[in-house]
């Protein structure tokens, strides 16, 4: 279970998150929607522990563990995964090598045995098959020369291999065609089980047709303004933030 | 192009790194008195039982050395070196020709162990019978000034390959040594080469005859051990028509507070259709985090592609030394000959590296490739200095140069100084250069996947160096990767 209570955070002294309260019970998938600049990515970075995102108050617990006290890599070993809105390029670093290093680092941290190249390859190929991705994804350098869609799919591949217990997907669906969107959705749905939970950040209802969320939250101005069931996402899609009486929240989704 | 980063990077270059090869070997040494004079040179020559012509050559080099000054153009700083305050000859005392493990000084064997020379190869170095069968690498080990043992001599001899200490080559193959020694790097070539020519005490000699592909990798480990001793090894490699050889050298030294001088000369000669691949993993003691101690590495390495379609390829991974002054070069004389230079130079703490290459295109349709990766951390300074010269007859010659610098932290410097001279309008020179930093978002991305900060830096640095590391023979590439990791320890925090 992820529990966020009274979380406030700033960047360069500028308050961005202004008191977030959010609980995602184990086994549930929640969606976060909200206008551009409302703090969705900031929230995901704060949860993952990025430098420069200063937490000024509140607490975050993942299954009772104080996440904010951990380094980013410790959060990863604790089972947290962030699919980046803008995945980062690592020139010269092969995707397979990167993934194996990451997987073994988290396994080591959890006291599990490391996988050798052969074992890893088997696991990675299976993940590729499940996601209908080509094997050459593993040979390429991490995100270098990837199209926007390939980058997003690579995030999903990493998630499938690292098998987190809590995943945050930050606009992983943006800019994807419908086929790619289904791949992303499949990636999340394949992980769905009683001990897995996720926070799916999106602008679009259509993703939520494939990943049906247990709850939908509207984030604006660094706060959760509205929470509801899947019908809230549909209402947003139809009438926009203004239609829900949220017009005072800055720019809306285009 | 030159870059200096203003201090506002959140990555602080700080604490102590670790030099794991910094041990000293307590071994009985025979050491000449300090100082450099004609008498010193006569003593060295006499110790080595050298022929008259070689003594004369040394004395000529000494005369040239006295006429020249230390070069001042490199971007390095160091207190003046007192050349009279050094020993020019130090040799482990031993009985001639150890034939069994028991005869080899156990301290020396322990040293090989610490150097990471595999057990089997240690046994071979020690001359243990039957140990040679399964290993694909022949090794020569140079300890201070003297070559201690060369392995696989017989297997190589069957193929017609000569691989032995150069002092022995002087005795056994004087005609070859006389023909080629100084033919690429003349005795008075530059200050440090002249010094080396005057006082060199050992090094490796390789001769691969016409049409022979050397059946194994040849490898030399250089080790400076004695205090206040300069190391001046000399390596000469000749590949005759159609021959192929791959040669590797590795270097370490004990950890000491004072600086030690290393001034080597390497000469390569490739005749028609011959290929020489020369790989170095240089890990001389770099000094401590405050910049105390470390090796001054002033090295002249040059290859002559004399024959048509010959090829010389230099690959170097330089992580050690307080000062590195080194420009492995190719003289592309034969038509369609090829020169390559692949380099990773990593500096941390107070290290200074001024390194690069020279590609001198003389022949038509000659081709050269330069891939240089400089990594600076701590307060170090890392300069790439490279010359590409297209001479009037180099019709259709081509060069491609790629120089990339990676900065870790905000107190280091990276500098790229390319010299391009073209006297042939049909020759083409391409130069690309980039300077980058390890970006915060790259580090965070890796860490969010579970990698520690250090592992993340290593991964990114290895990725940055990949184009060079892939040129190294497999087992050397692995060693080089580990070395990069160790050399970066404490560079981020
Ligand atoms: N690195 C940064 N430096 C300064 N301001 C930032 C930075 N990142 C985000 N912000 C600001 O924080 C606010 C929230 O941004 P973000 O979390 O990216 O929103 P969203 O993901 O909801 O579009 C915006 O006003 C944005 O300008
Ligand atoms: Mg965002």
Please provide a written account of the structure.
- The complex is a heterodimer of chains A (about 250) and B (about 500).
- With about 250 residues, chain A is α/β, with parallel strands linked by helices.
- Chain A contains 9 helices and 10 strands.
- Chain A has one domain (about 1-250): Rossmann fold (3-Layer(aba) Sandwich), CATH 3.40.50.300.
- In chain B, strands 1, 6, 7, 9, 11, 12, 14, 16, 17, 19, 21 and 23 form a 12-stranded mixed beta sheet that branches.
- Chain B has helices at about 40-45, 50-65, 105-115, 120-125, 155-160, 165-170, 175-180, 190-200, 440-450, 455-470, 475-485; strands at about 1-5, 30, 90, 135-145, 145-150, 160-165, 205-210, 215-225, 235-240, 245-250, 260, 265-270, 275-280, 295-305, 310-320, 325, 330, 340-345, 350-360, 365-375, 380-390, 400-405, 415-420, 430-435.
- In chain B, a hairpin with a 2-residue loop joins strand 4 and strand 5 (about 145-150).
- Chain B contains 11 helices and 24 strands.
- Chain B has one domain.
- In chain B, helix 2 (about 50-65) packs antiparallel against helix 8 and helix 9 (about 440-450) packs across helix 10 (about 455-470).
- The longest helix of chain B has 17 residues, at about 455-470.
- At the A-B interface, helix 2 and helix 3 of A face helix 9 and helix 10 of B.
Main attributes?
heterodimer; A: 254 residues; alpha/beta; Rossmann fold; 6-stranded mixed β-sheet; 4-stranded antiparallel β-sheet; 9 helices; B: 493 residues; 12-stranded mixed β-sheet; 23% helix; disordered N terminus; binds adenosine-5'-diphosphate; binds magnesium ion
């Amino acid at each position: 279970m992820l529990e966020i209570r009274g979380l406030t955070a700033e960047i360069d002294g500028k308050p961005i998150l202004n008191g977030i309260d959010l609980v995602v019970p184990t086994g549930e998938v929640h969606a976060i929607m909200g206008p551009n600049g409302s703090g969705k990515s900031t929230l995901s970075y704060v949860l993952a522990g990025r430098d420069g995102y200063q937490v000024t108050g509140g607490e975050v617990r993942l299954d009772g563990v104080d996440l904010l006290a951990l380094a980013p890599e410790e959060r990863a070993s604790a089972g947290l995964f962030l699919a980046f809105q803008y995945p980062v390029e690592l020139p010269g670093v092969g995707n397979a090598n990167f993934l194996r290093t990451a997987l073994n680092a988290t396994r080591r941290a959890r006291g599990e045995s490391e996988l050798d190249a052969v074992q890893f390859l088997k696991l990675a190929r299976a993940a590729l098959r499940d996601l209908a991705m080509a094997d050459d994804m593993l040979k390429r350098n991490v995100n270098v020369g990837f199209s926007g869609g390939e980058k997003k799919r690579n995030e999903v591949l990493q998630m499938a291999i690292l098998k987190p217990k809590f995943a945050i997907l930050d606009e992983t669906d943006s800019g994807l065609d419908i086929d790619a969107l289904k791949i992303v959705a499949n990636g999340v749905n394949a992980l769905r089980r009683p001990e897995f939970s996720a926070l799916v950040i999106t602008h679009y209802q259509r993703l939520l047709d494939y990943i049906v969320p247990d709850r939908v939250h509207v984030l604006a101005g660094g706060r959760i303004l509205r929470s509801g069931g899947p019908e809230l996402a549909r209402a947003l899609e139809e009438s926009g933030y203004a239609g829900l009486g949220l017009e005072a929240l800055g720019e809306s989704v285009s | 192009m030159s870059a200096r980063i203003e201090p506002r990077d959140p990555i602080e270059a700080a604490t102590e790194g670790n030099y794991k090869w910094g041990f000293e070997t307590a071994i009985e040494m025979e050491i000449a008195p300090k100082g450099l004079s004609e008498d010193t040179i006569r003593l060295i020559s006499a110790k080595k039982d050298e022929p008259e012509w070689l003594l004369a050559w040394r004395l000529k080099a000494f005369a040239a050395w006295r006429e020249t000054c230390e070069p001042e153009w490199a971007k390095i700083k160091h207190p003046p070196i007192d050349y009279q305050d050094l020993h020019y000859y130090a040799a482990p005392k031993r009985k001639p020709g150890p034939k069994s493990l028991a005869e080899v000084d156990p301290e020396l064997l322990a040293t090989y162990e610490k150097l990471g020379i595999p057990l089997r190869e240690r046994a071979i170095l020690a001359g243990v019978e039957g140990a040679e069968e399964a290993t694909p690498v022949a090794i020569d080990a140079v300890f201070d000034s003297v070559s201690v043992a060369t392995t696989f001599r017989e297997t190589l001899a069957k193929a017609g390959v000569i691989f032995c200490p150069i002092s022995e080559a002087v005795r056994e193959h004087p005609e070859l040594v006389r023909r080629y020694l100084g033919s690429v790097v003349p005795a008075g070539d530059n200050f440090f080469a002249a010094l080396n020519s005057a006082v060199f005490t050992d090094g490796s000699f390789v001769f691969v005859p016409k049409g022979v592909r050397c059946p194994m990798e040849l490898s030399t480990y250089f080790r400076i051990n004695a205090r206040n001793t300069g190391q001046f090894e000399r390596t000469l490699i000749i590949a005759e028509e159609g021959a192929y050889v791959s040669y590797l050298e590795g270097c370490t030294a004990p950890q000491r507070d004072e600086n030690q001088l290393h001034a080597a000369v390497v000469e390569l000669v490739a005749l028609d259709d011959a290929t020489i691949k020369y790989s170095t993993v240089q890990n001389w003691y770099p000094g401590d985090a405050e910049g105390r101690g470390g090796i001054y590495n002033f090295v002249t390495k040059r290859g002559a592609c004399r024959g048509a379609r010959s090829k010389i390829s230099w690959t170097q991974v330089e992580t050690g030394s307080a000062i590195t002054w080194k420009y492995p070069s190719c003289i592309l004389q034969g038509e369609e000959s090829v020169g390559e230079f692949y380099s990773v130079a990593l500096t941390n703490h107070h290290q200074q590296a001024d390194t690069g290459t020279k590609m001198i295109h003389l022949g038509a349709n000659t081709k050269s490739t330069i891939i240089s990766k400089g990594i600076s951390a701590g307060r170090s300074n890392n300069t790439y200095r490279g010359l590409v010269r297209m001479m009037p007859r180099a019709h259709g010659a081509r060069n491609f140069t790629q120089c990339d610098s990676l900065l870790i932290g905000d107190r280091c410097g990276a500098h790229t100084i390319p010299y391009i001279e073209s006297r042939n309008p049909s020759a083409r020179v391409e130069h690309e250069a980039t300077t980058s930093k390890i970006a915060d978002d790259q580090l965070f991305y890796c860490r969010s996947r579970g990698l520690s900060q250090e592992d993340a830096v290593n991964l990114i640095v290895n990725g940055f160096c990949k184009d060079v590391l892939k040129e190294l023979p497999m087992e050397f590439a692995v060693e080089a990767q580990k070395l990069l990791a160790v050399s970066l320890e404490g560079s981020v925090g």
